[in-house]
Amino acid sequence: MKTLSGIPASGGIAIGRAHVLAALAVEVSHHFIEPEQLDAELSRFDAAVELARTELAEVRQNLEHDAPTELGAFIEVHELMLADPMLTVAPRTLITERRYNAAWALSTQVEALAKTFEDMDDAYLRERSYDVRQVGERILKHMTQDAGSSGGSARPADELGEDIVIVAHDIAPADMLQFKETRFAGFVTDLGGVTSHTAIVARSLQLPAVVAASEATSLIHQDDFIIVDGHDGRIYVNPDAATRERFARKAAEERATRAALGSLRHVPAVTLAGELIELAANIEVPEDVDGAVEMNADGIGLFRTEFLFMGRKQLPDEDEQFSAYARVVLAMAGKPVVIRTLDVGADKTLAEEVDLQAVVAPNPALGLRAIRYCLAKPEMFRTQLRAILRASALGPVKILIPMVAHEHEVDQARAAIERAKKELKARGEKCAASVPVGAMIEIPAAALILDRLLPKLDFCSIGTNDLIQYTLAIDRADAEVAHLYDPAHPAVLHLIEHTIRTCKRAGKPVSVCGEMAGDIKYTERLLAMGLTSFSMHAGCILPVKSVIRGAGASPAPNAHVMQA
Ligand code: PEP
Ligand code: MG
Questions:
Q1: 2-23+150-242 in CATH: which number?
Q2: Which residues pair with 438 in a beta bridge?
């Protein structure tokens, strides 16, 4: 048994077979196919291989006579690989036996083969790992629509007999989204931090996750049996029977505890002192609203709209955005929905096709991110604002501006909102008479000039993830400095408490929507600072409610870190 450790990023125990993803595999879709889709999926795979062969034959035929001989030799190597059963038959076995969709089966096999070449002593053979990947990409390119995306099931892995735990070097937040479609048991990544957006999505999926397990992808092999402890960040590779049994018992206990919390779904979040606390949900994509409704959330406290924009070659137009926002507003049936305007930048990048700047920014976390990005692209910003305002005709909507640091950013955002309203009016479209506008307090400067900002704002939401990052100068996604990312740092607590008290004094609603709001370690501390509104992933609502219902008899220790 090998034990690795990283940073615990999402609680729970995952037990299953490792699926080690490489860069190629991360980008392809992952679905389990239905038995009746098997023949079509095999044919799709065979057709893609055939098309790759034809393409390569054409390339060879069209080769200029004076082309360097090495070029012909390379093409020959690729043709040989395309004839090798390791590439053309083995993926069929994965499709048939494991019910992987074709792209997933191919990328799994390509990676295994490439690794075999990489481990060879001979330098020439080692180099062939590149060829394997290139041939894999050539086949992948010819794959038509995936079975999974055209009605394939989001079949839980455990229905197939074994759970699958994803092990990857890193997973971009946009790529994480595809994992929402198929359930995996857990995630391990070499890189990342607790509040990197990858970890946030893992938590929203309620899957155990360990990040910054630096050597995971080289020390864990495909199909190793692993246990991921999302509480303490340990990963057990090929554990002995006693360890397996111990963790299976622990996982069962956790399932029972979660089930028991279900009884809290319809009781209010009231402290022992009788104070009613609002518990709203954070969502990334419109479908997440179903989880919020299931947990009886008091509203949507943060809709991270950037996930609608990421991983696509064309930005969503006004109608597409309107449909997404409308779905959420209608599902919440009269409960408030806080829609945050686009917060791209830092670890949430748009595809290169739509945003070249993100690729060249010297320090994206301090660059053209969030409101700065939107104000630099007024047409795109107003398209989003019009879509949000149209959704406000269907139910209570609030607009939240991310990464505010300057008063003039609020002024400019408000001016854009007014202009978007006028544009809608000219088109005869409806929107609510009044749509509250708030700011994320997530840059220390915003917390420190709150007195100036508040007259311009209807509400505030404290983004602790970035507030910690920018206060402590710790990149929230950087594994190297993750040990210094400390939510309980006195400077951070000082800014949070200052923000809550200043808003309360001014009579402006304030909530916390960063990950601290959903972490029961901080619930009592935040309550003691006077916080009465929390927003978190739906899966955290009941555990936090349970703490709230037991809290308030006496002040939490160390709650006040500053003089009132
Ligand atoms: C935050 O910064 O705390 C926050 C809620 O926003 P995000 O995690 O999307 O940056
Ligand atoms: Mg933020």
A1: 3.50.30.10
A2: 400, 459
